[in-house]
Structure formats: C-alpha cells, structure tokens
Amino acid sequence: MALKSALIFLALTVSSISFGESPIPVKSLGSWTIVVAPDAIASEKYAAEEFRDLLKKATGMELAVSDSPRQATGNVFIGDGESFRKSSLAFGIEDLGEEGLHIRITPASIAIVGGRPRGTLYGVYECMERYLGVRFLTRDHTHFPSPSIAELPCEDHIYRPIFEFRWSYYKENSDAPDFAARMRVNTVTSDDKLGGRTRQELIGHTFGRYLPVEKYGKDHPEYFALVDGVRKLDSGGGGPEPCVSNPAVIDIISSNVLADLEADPHRKNISVSQNDNDAYCRCATCEAINKAEGTPMGSNLALVNAVADRVAEKFPGIKVGTLSYWYTRKPPKTIKPRENVQIQLCSIECCTFHPLNDPSCPKNREFCADMEGWKSICNDIWIWNYNTNFSSYDLPFPNLRAIGPNVRFFSENHVKGVFMQANGNGNAGEMSDLRNYVISRCLWNPSLESWPLAEEFCRLHYGAAAGKVIDYLALLHDNLEQSGNHPACFPTAAEVGLNADISTRAYRLIREAIALADNDEVKSRLEKFSIYPMKAVLETAATMSCDQGTFRCVLPDELKDVPRQYIDLCKRFNLTMAAETIPIEVYLDAVERAVEGIPALALENAVWRIKVIPEQNGRMVELFHKPSGKHMLAASGDQNHGISFRRGDCQELWGDPAMRNPKDAFTGEVSGSAIRMKRVLADGSVIQRTIRLEEGRPELVFNETTVTHQSDSPGNYQFKIRPEIDTYTTSNDPNVLSVLIKGKDWEQINQSWDKADGPNKDRLRLAQGGEYAFFNHEQHMGMKLTYHPEQATARLWWNPEWEQVNLELMTRLAQLTKGVSWSYDYTLEFLPEPPH
Ligand SMILES: [Zn+2]
Ligand SMILES: [Zn+2]
Fold first, then answer.
1. Among 3, 519, 551, 584, which residue has the fewest nearby CB atoms (within 10 Å)?
2. How far is the CA of 204 from the centre of ligand 1 (A)?
3. Centroid of ligand 1 to alpha carbon of 256 (angstroms)
C-alpha cells in the first residue's frame, strides 16, 4: 500500500507519493472542519488560523476551527494532537526535526503536521503554494489564482528543508516577521506564534569578545598576534587577533565560551572566530603550524578544535562555528574540523554575476576549490554570500541568474546554513521585494530556479506591465554577460555593464511599463521600481560639465527630469540608505547640488588645465594634460560619468570623519597662478591648501598644505594624499605598466605582483629617493609624484580593472600645540617617457 511505501522515504529530504485515488474537488471541503488540538503550541494554533484565512481568500469557503473533530471524516488536522493520532491518517513526526512537514491528503481527511516549533506552520504555507497556487509576494500582496484551483491530489508530501538556517537579509523580512514566516525565513523573530527563530546564531567575529584586549593587552601582550616582530594590540576589526597557539589563550577563550553557553542553555551553536583584520599571529609556533598546513587556517582551526573538545565534554550536541574568511578560506592540509565544528565560508572575493560553480568564471574557481576541500572534511558548512552592491544599494545589480545555481551549489556541498547578505540595513534597495521573494524561496527549496521565480514575481506583481519589466531584467543581464565583466559586491556602474546607452534603454522600458499599468496600485509599484534605472541614469548618462566656474549636471532632453523625479521617489518610497554606510540624504544632497550647480575653481597654463571643488573637501576633479590630450584624473575623463565624480579625483583625507564630509567645505579663490583654499575647524585651527603653477616650471603642479593648530589642547594631524591617476590601460603586465620608486636609483617594483595585489610595503617605505611614478609603455605616458620622505611615506594602491593607480602618500603624524604650524608639499608631473 502506498502509505507504507511513504514511510520508506522518511529519511529523504522530500518525497511525494500519490495514493492513486481520484483527486478531491476543492469545493467538497466547504463542509469540513479544521481541527487543532487544545494543547497545540502557539504556532500550530496560528497555523490553523492561517489555513482558514488563506483558504477563504483562495476559494471563498470559510471553514470552522475546532479543537476536536465533529465527524469521523471531513477533517483538516493542523498539527500533532490526540485526535489526529487516533485518526486513520495518523503518522509520526519524530523524524521531522524543528521544521520538517508532512502533508497527507486523502478523500476522507487531510493532515498538515510538522515538527515543532515551525513544521506545521510551514506545512500550511507549503500546502497553499503547492496545492492552491498561492504566492506570498510581498507583505501586502499575496497572490490567489483566479479562478481558484479545483482539485487536490491525494498524496503524501514530506519535506525537510536542507538548510537549518535561512536568512534572506532584507527589511521585507525583518520589518514583517509574519511575512518572513510565510517565506519560511527562520532567522528574524522570536515570536512563538510564528514558530520563533532557529536556535543557531549567524557565525561571526568573536575573538574580540572572548579575549578582550582591554582586559589582557597590558599585562599579557604575548596573548596577541605577533606581526612584524611586535605584539600588535591596535588592529581594527573588533580587536587584535590572538596568538592562537598560546595554551593560556586557548584556556581563556574556552572558559569564556563555556560561560556564554551556561548563560544561554537554549542556543545550539556558538561562534569562535577570527576578528575582522588580517594581522594574524606570525610567532614561531603559529607560523610552523600555518606553514605545515599551507594556510593561516591551520593554527586557527587548531584553536577552534581545542575549544570544541571542551564544549563537547560539557555541552554535547552544541556546535562551534568559525569563519573561513579571507586568509582562512583555504582548508588546512591535515587538520580536520571536529565533528561539532561548523565552517562558514564567505564568498566576498567572488564574482556575483556568474554562479559560483560556473567553470567559465575565473574569479570563482578558487572558492569552488576551497568548498570542495571543506566538503571532504566537514558536514556542517555554512555560507555567507553577498547579494547587493554594497557601495550603491539602489544601482542595478544583475545577479538574478546566479542566485538559484548558487543556492543549489550550497545544497550539494554539505551546507546547513545560508546567510544571503543584501541591503538589509536599508529600506527599498534595488528590487528588494522581488529579490527577497526569489532568495527566500530558493533558500527554502534549492531545487527552484531563480530566473523563472523572478519572472513569476513580475507576472503576478506587475500585471500587464510584466513583459516590459522582464525585458528590462533581460537587458541588464544579457548586457553584463556580453561585457565579459566579473563584478564582485562593491562594483562600479561600469563593472556591472552600465553605460549611458544601457541605462537610457533600461529607463525607457520602465517608463513604458508604467504606461501599461493596470491600476494605480500597480503603477505605484512600477514607480518604485523606476528608482533603480534612474539611479543608473544618474551614474552613467549624466555628466558634470563646467561652465563659467560652475559644475552642473547635464542630461539629454529625454532624461532631464530624472534628478528631480529620483529625489521625489526616494522620499516617497522611503529609500533610506544609498550604500552600506551612506544614508540616502547624502546622495540626495549630491543630486540637488549637481542640479543647482557646484562652484569650481580653475587654473590653466600651456601644459595643464586644473579644476577644483572647494566645497567638496577641495578635491581636484580635472587634471588635463594639454600636450598629450590625456585626462590624468578619470573624474573628468570620458570613462567616468555620474553626478558625484565617484572616483578618479585627487583628495587629501584626514582621519577626522567630518573632514571627509563634503558639507564641511573649504572656501577658496584663484589668485594669480594659484588656487588658495582654507578651512577653519570647530576649535579655530586652520587648514590651508594651495595648488599652483609656476611660470618657470610649467610642467609641474605644486601642492602645499599648512595646518595651524589653535586649540589649547594639543592636536594630532595625519593626512592621506590620494591622487587617483588614470593609467589608460587595464593591463597588469609589468612590461605594459611599470610602477617605479626611487631609492638611490629608480627601481621597478611590480614585476612579480600576482593579480596586481602588490605592493611590497617595505620597499615603498625604505625607498628614500622622494619620487615615485607609474608609466604606461604602450601609451607613452605616466605620472610622477615628488615628495619629501621626512614628511610622508609612499602608499601605493592599484586596480588594473579600474585603469587606476593611486600614487598615495601618508603624512607623518604631527602633534601640534597651540599656535604651531606644520606644512607638507609635493608636486605632480606628467611623464612622456619612463623616469630615469
Ligand atoms: Zn602565535
Ligand atoms: Zn564571473
């Protein structure tokens, strides 16, 4: 009999067995009763209400809810209980865990019964989706098919989610826990009615908590990482890394971990993991382990295992989670995680457009190799995956084709927990409603495909306009595919394939979609959607043009209204964050200023044309070399559009965050052949900057800064000078692009750089010649920066994909008393041939 064979499948994740009976007409349920046991838990009672309410909306029939059957047949049992167990449908729930579910549909009765505390509630939602075609699209929009589904198949359906921890990180979930429950996201609420949250916590950085530097740093510096010969106590990212091989460190971390577990007996895992910096310990003992194991994860995992052994002794069944992140992503050669250790891999370096296991994507191969390595030694892997543009929350981020394959890839590799990080600390980020729908459904059921889910969302949410929205999605994805780019999770607009043409076409499609809206509600949804192509327009189709000393945003006629519309829509739909750490007000202010006009100062001689914006930290946004026709700063070149000169400028940044805020402006003027700018700080201290050209040396751009301290208490000043110079090549071939620094003589320093990830900091620091440069041998152009080694140190940064080398300087730290001034200066010079 079919019922018996169903039991054989209990061990599997999903099984659906047809009883071979004729389907039940849905109409016949009209006289049935919903039965929920009097001693049911809160989430099961709520499940019965949800079943009643959703069935009514789906079919028009309202069933009574009772705590006992009114007749022998015609019952819908919701949740375990005495009457269910006495019924002909009875089955056990021992193997269903906390959220596995079992739906049994027979002509006599129906049972939706799951493990506690969430299985039954999730069973009701699974039943609605699977049998009645219901779709939970957003918190305000649940789709019910019309006409309603006519028949229910007689079958047994058993489902256990593959992932025990599922988090689609969007406000769509965290602000609406009842909707999150419908999406079966089990990480956002402790409300018992909704089944609460999984008792496993997201794995995060905790060494700072378990070995606080404030407590141990002074008396026991040897507890902390030895870096460059010193015990490093001032690393950022939550505190210094421990010396993980020190037995006293292992004892302290273990006892603090055990104390946390004693204080919270309900939790099922605990994080024991590196802080967020790469200053890990290089002492002889740690290094020996790391060398033998081929990765700094060697010594880290040895510590985690030691802690895990002590946890296993006192708290059997509790897992110890640790990050496999950045320098610890590669598994060790011989050390294996203990049975009770969870390894959480983070994909932050990966390409977000191609699926992680797409063999054609060069950027993801290493991650796959690491995953393969961990899979062979660990059966409780967790994933931290990245699903938004963290530097622009509302810019199109075409990764919808990768989500499904990625989640499926996780499901095939012993993964038990998935954190899909997105713009969850902001409201109304790019397609957040659509994306949350796709991600949440894939996490619950990794066999689903993300692209068809996105299309389904469009059809059900945007009605007659859906075709245009799907065309829009296809345009952006096809275009990025053709670009050959591999964007990670902080991409520029160009890296995700956006340019003026694509953004304009995308914007047109959504305008056409709005014109097709069936009603005001759908129109409003599409207006919200239009924020995202508008952002693309602002970042790619808008250019900043300087006329009579004022930069203004210039757009083709068709797009002229976009800046104002964008500002209005962001406010109307309460878009709150422009990026992970930038409130939308900052960006809206930049849009306002770009429309109103931003005063600039200009300087020009036979060699150079220079433009500076005093109110934006006095940054230089144009450095045009007339003889060669090269824009040395991309901010004003052909490549870089957008209303905010996002990159490719020359700035001097100060440790004080206020200094970085464009609102804290310099004032300035052009006098003779110099731009002179001044900023008075809150305490009366003064920063003066001069950028000037000299008649006798027209090829040089002189930069001079003077700080005069005026406060009674001493002040600390240190500046990062950051000229982001355009290299005119994406090559990282040292024969195409040389980076050179002068010691006694000029020395090329980028011959052996892997993936352009140099530089050798020591070589930069030790070179005392006071000059450094890059040179593009194909274009016969380069830039030289001349400085005083006693004032500042060279700090190179290079991104070939951005065609950019930053010839950065970090000044020494100046400690000034009242009335004392301090100055530094440097020059920039175009190179028509390599320096010699
Ligand atoms: Zn050590
Ligand atoms: Zn790729």
1. 519
2. 21
3. 20
Structure tokens at 92: 């056990």
Q: Which two tokens stand for residue 158?
A: 């058993």
Region label for 282, one of left (φ > 0), alpha (ψ between -120 and 50) or beta (otherwise): alpha
Among the bound ligands, the one closest to the CA of 368: 2
For the CA of 244, the nearest ligand: 1
Q: What are 36-92's pLDDT values in tens digits?
A: 999 999 999 999 999 999 999 999 999 999 999 999 999 999 999 999 999 999 999
How many other CB atoms sit within 10 Å of the CB of residue 561? Answer: 12
779 close to 698: Cβ distance less than 8 angstroms: no
Q: How confident is the model at residue 821 (pLDDT cuts 50, 70, 90)?
A: very high
Alpha-carbon torsion (809, 691, 665, 593), positive or negative: negative
Dihedral in degrees, nearest 10, Cα atoms 697, 700, 701, 706: -70
Ligand nearest to the CA of 483: 2
- How far apart (Å, rounded) are the C-alpha atoms in residues 751 and 764? 14
Q: Which of 246, 256, 240 is nearest to 320 (CA)?
A: 256
pLDDT greater than 50 at residue 4: no
Is residue 38 classed exposed, middle or buried when 0-12, 13-18 and 19+ CB atoms within 10 A define those classes?
A: exposed
How many Å is the Cα radius of gyration of the chain? 31
Residues 6 or more apart whose CB falls under 8 angstroms from that of 416 comprise 162, 163, 164, 165, 342, 380, 381, 382
Please give the single-letter amino acid code of residue 534: M
Task: Supply the DSSP string of 638-697, one letter for each residue.
Answer: SS--STT--SS-EEEEESSHHHH-TTS--EEEEETTEEEEEEE-TTS-EEEEEEE--SS-
pLDDT for res 1? 36
Q: Are 810 and 802 in contact (CB under 8 A)?
A: no
Distance (Å, whole) CA 830 – CA 3: 82
Strands 319-324 and 269-271: parallel
Ligand 2 midpoint to CA 354 (Å): 4
pLDDT over 70 (residue 656): no
* C-beta of residue 431 within 8 angstroms of C-beta of residue 529: yes
Q: How many CB atoms lie within 10 A of CB 693?
A: 21
Domains with residue ranges and CATH for the chain: 2-160 (3.30.379.10), 467-598 (no CATH), 602-831 (2.70.98.10)
Provide the pLDDT for residue 19: 84
Measure 250 CA to ligand 1 centroid, in angstroms. Answer: 11
Token reading at 101: 């579910």
C-alpha 286 to ligand 1 mean position (Å): 4
Q: pLDDT digit string (tens) for 413-472?
A: 999 999 999 999 999 999 999 999 999 999 999 999 999 999 999 999 999 999 999 999
**How far does the centroid of ligand 2 lie from the alpha carbon of residue 203, in Å?**
27
From 441, 448, 377, select the one nearest 414 (Cα to Cα).
377
Question: Ligand 1 centroid vs 288 CA: distance in angstroms?
Answer: 9
335: CA distance to ligand 1 center in Å? 17
Q: In angstroms, rounded to a whole number, what is the distance separating the alpha carbons of residues 240 and 253?
A: 14
- The pLDDT tens digits for 326-374 are 999 999 999 999 999 999 999 999 999 999 999 999 999 999 999 999 9
SS3 546: strand
Q: What percent of the chain has pLDDT over 90?
A: 87
- pLDDT, mean of residues 740-758: 78
Task: State the pLDDT confidence band at 210, using cuts at 50, 70 and 90.
Answer: very high
CB 703 within 8 A of CB 690: yes
Do 649 and 613 contact (CB within 8 A), yes or no?
no
The token pair that represents 753 in the structure block: 């750089």
Q: Which residues contact 682 (CB under 8 A, 6 or more apart)?
A: none
Q: What pLDDT is stored for residue 13 in this prediction?
A: 77
Q: Residue 836 has what pLDDT?
A: 86
